[in-house]
Amino acid sequence: xxxxxxxxxxxxxxxxxxxxxxxxxxxxxxxxxxxxxxxxxxxxxxxxxxxxxxxxxxxxxxxxxxxxxxxxxxxxxxxxxxxxxxxxxxxxxxxxxxxxxxxxxxxxxxxxxxxxxxxxxxxxxxxxxxxxxxxxxxxxxxxxxxxxxxxxxxxxxxxxxxxxxxxxxxxxxxxxxxxxxxxxxxxxxxxxxxxxxxxxxxxxxxxxxxxxxxxxxxxxxxxxxxxxxxxxxxxxxxxxxxxxx
Length: 245
Fold this sequence. Notes:
The protein has helices at 82-86, 111-114; strands at 25-32, 35-46, 49-54, 67-71, 77-81, 92-93, 100-103, 119-120, 136-141, 156-170, 177-183, 195-198, 201-204, 207-210, 215-225, 231-237. The protein has 245 residues and is mainly β.
């Protein structure tokens, strides 16, 4: 079934503003007793296929009641059962990194939820690069589940800079060694699985500096912390997506 997944016209690399990127993310929520486990995911389009991408630890405990919250055409939060959205597809974990992907089986049932939804693979930084510490980056997601309830769908954005472009650390969920981008500011629970963008523009006072296009550089893994209260965010770089997504 043919669906126009992209949030932009095919063949064009573009700059997205923060408000436009609200549509490419969703909140994953898994009921757990009286609480819910929450995380973030991003829709990706590659070669006319739609994928849902997140951190593997976000979907480790999903069940038949797991649902996602996304924005409808009017910016209103809409709940969809995860299995219905995926068309019965299952998540596949990356062999090394904290990443999980699901190739969505498109049908008449879920087609409407995918229209103009996905971020283009052509704007993902899958080649290993060293990010400048002067580069302003923006994560988008649902810390503590905020932004996915109420009358307006409003994922939170978080601006920060690179503290270290590449550090080898044990994963927080299974202790496997992986490469991470380290950010100056911490993440918050619920941001896990969310995208980290170079938006391609920076506003300085009344002036806006633009680049070629918005780029996706990583997926939020978690927070490094110590007893002194110091905290940094660890990001899984998109180079792990090369030849995997």
